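Example 3.2
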Amino acid sequence: MKVSKLHISIDKKCLVDISFDISSSLALVGQSGSGKSLTLKALLGMLPSSMKLELECDSDFVLRAGESLAFVPQNPFTALSPLTKIKKQFFIPLAKVEKLFEQVGLDIEFLERFPPELSGGQLQRVVIAMALESEPKLLLLDEPTTALDPENRVIVLELLKSLQMEFGFKILFVTHDMISAKSLCEDICVIRDGKVVESGAMADILKNPHEGYTKTLIDANFANREFRV
């Protein structure tokens, strides 16, 4: 999937002006205020009406939530009704939901429970299953491991990699967490103030960043940790 133009403005002031190509899995990385969230909202059709969007992408790829793309939020509670049993929050036959639960590593007995009865890691896997019910071509991830402990973070990232191989969807991982980005994505696009600073293969950028901004992000993430590309 190639986005040749994504331009967001308000009152003729440019907020985001980027392009990127998702060959398999791409991490969109930057500090707070860099334009990551606006880019995500633009792809989801959730920009405020006050903002103007110009978007050009592959003609054979229609950006439409629930059809060609699906979304996994940072906080799974935002995607689930706490007062509704989990099985009733899906829109496909129960047999298919049970199959999805097996694929994301959840016991089907959880379908009879309410969201507050599950752990954060379990809920995130429920939301991943919900995202896959539409068989998307593109999975948008908004910091899906930020609220998880280190053990569950690893589990969810490994699960996403396994599911991508099984289902064949592409991944756009919006994050400031370079460590998780390195674990999940083949490519990286670093943005600052709504512009692309540098992009390319993940291993190459992490090993030899050309921009000081990118180096600062890497150093901040891997400080006091063993780091091998």
